[in-house]
């Protein structure tokens, strides 16, 4: 049972472009929505996270947009760089138990 | 150590053998998770431990898979009678006590190859 659905599966962007990855969730009890970044041979690491009391959160070139009514959230990477090439996972969990569920991942390639 | 430690980093075994994968979480983290990542695939949830609560085993793919967490710290994931489809990277993560959902800290994984 996939509780978080992520798209696209892979994404190729030119250097300087905008990368957009989308996620949708089913469980309205989820109240924490992080994005993780994974480089080959490494474990995923937290990139940025949002709670549903705000519609957008920005950290440097990375922005999460959150639409509570649609149960969707997305990651935008502005001015994408080759060093951003990695696999990105969205996730969702509930405050009271932190039982984290992940999307299927998006493999991002930024071409120089 | 400062991070989540997993061992072995690589394990090659023959079909039908049992394997044990170990995870040492960050000290003080009450939540521990196991995920499986097949080549080029996403993170498949396996099992979740939170403090002294009964673990959420809903992600274990078959009864050949089991996990335990002793003393609320170190965890062992055991796969009995391994099959070739068990080949994957097994990732462990830990997080702080609940009450405010937060960051998972991942180890670098144990790569299992079943011949």
Architecture overview:
Chain A has no helices and eleven strands. Chain A has 112 residues and is mainly β. In chain A, the strands form two sheets. In chain A, strands 2, 4, 5, 9, 10 and 11 form a six-stranded mixed β-sheet that branches. Chain A has a five-stranded antiparallel β-sheet with strand order 1-3-8-7-6, with no helix packed on it. The radius of gyration of chain A is 13 Å and the shape is globular. By secondary structure, chain B is an all-beta fold. Chain B has strands at residues 5-7, 10-13, 19-24, 31-37, 44-50, 65-69, 75-79, 88-95, 105-106, 110-114. In chain B, strands 2, 4, 5, 8, 9 and 10 form a six-stranded mixed β-sheet that branches. The termini of chain B are far apart. Chains A and B meet through strand 5 and strand 10 of A and strand 4, strand 5 and strand 8 of B.
User: What's the alpha carbon Rg of chain B, rounded to whole Å?
Assistant: 13 Å
Q: What fraction, in percent, of the residue positions of chain B are helical?
A: under 10%
The greatest inter-chain interface is formed by:
A-B, 27 and 26 residues
Largest sheet of chain B: 6 strands, mixed
Number of helical elements of chain A:
0
Structural class of chain A: mainly beta
Dominant shape of chain B: globular
Spans of chain B with pLDDT under 50 lasting ≥5 residues?
none
Shape of chain A: globular
Structure characteristics:
heterodimer, A: 112 residues, mainly beta, six-stranded mixed β-sheet, 0% helix, B: 115 residues, four-stranded antiparallel β-sheet
SSE layout and pairings?
The complex is a heterodimer of chains A (112) and B (115).
Chain A: E1 4-7, E2 10-14, E3 19-25, E4 33-38, E5 45-50, E6 56-59, E7 62-67, E8 72-77, E9 86-92, E10 101-102, E11 106-111
Parallel strand pairs in A: 2-11
Antiparallel strand pairs in A: 1-3, 3-8, 4-5, 4-9, 6-7, 7-8, 9-10, 9-11
Chain B: E1 5-7, E2 10-13, E3 19-24, E4 31-37, E5 44-50, E6 65-69, E7 75-79, E8 88-95, E9 105-106, E10 110-114
Parallel strand pairs in B: 2-10
Antiparallel strand pairs in B: 1-3, 3-7, 4-5, 4-8, 6-7, 8-9, 8-10
């Amino acid at each position: 049972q996939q509780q978080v659905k992520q798209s696209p599966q892979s994404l190729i962007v030119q250097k300087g472009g905008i990368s957009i990855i989308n996620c949708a969730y089913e469980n309205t009890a989820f109240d924490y929505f992080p994005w993780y970044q994974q480089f080959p041979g490494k474990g995923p690491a937290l990139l940025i996270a949002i709670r549903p009391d705000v519609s957008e959160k920005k950290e440097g070139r990375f922005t999460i947009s959150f639409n509570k009514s649609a149960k969707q959230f997305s990651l935008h990477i502005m001015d994408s760089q080759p060093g951003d090439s990695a696999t990105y996972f969205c996730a969702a969990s509930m405050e009271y138990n932190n039982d984290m569920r992940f999307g299927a991942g998006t493999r991002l390639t930024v071409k120089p | 150590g400062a991070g989540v430690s997993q061992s072995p980093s690589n394990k090659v075994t023959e079909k039908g053998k049992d394997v044990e994968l170990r995870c040492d979480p960050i000290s003080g983290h009450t939540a521990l998770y196991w995920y499986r990542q097949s080549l080029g695939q996403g993170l498949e949830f396996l099992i979740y431990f939170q403090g002294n609560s009964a673990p959420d085993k809903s992600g274990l793919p078959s009864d050949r898979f089991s996990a335990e967490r002793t003393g609320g710290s170190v965890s062992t994931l055991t796969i009995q009678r391994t099959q070739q489809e068990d080949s994957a990277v097994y990732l462990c993560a830990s997080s702080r006590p609940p009450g405010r959902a937060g960051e998972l800290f991942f180890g670098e994984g144990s790569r299992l190859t079943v011949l």
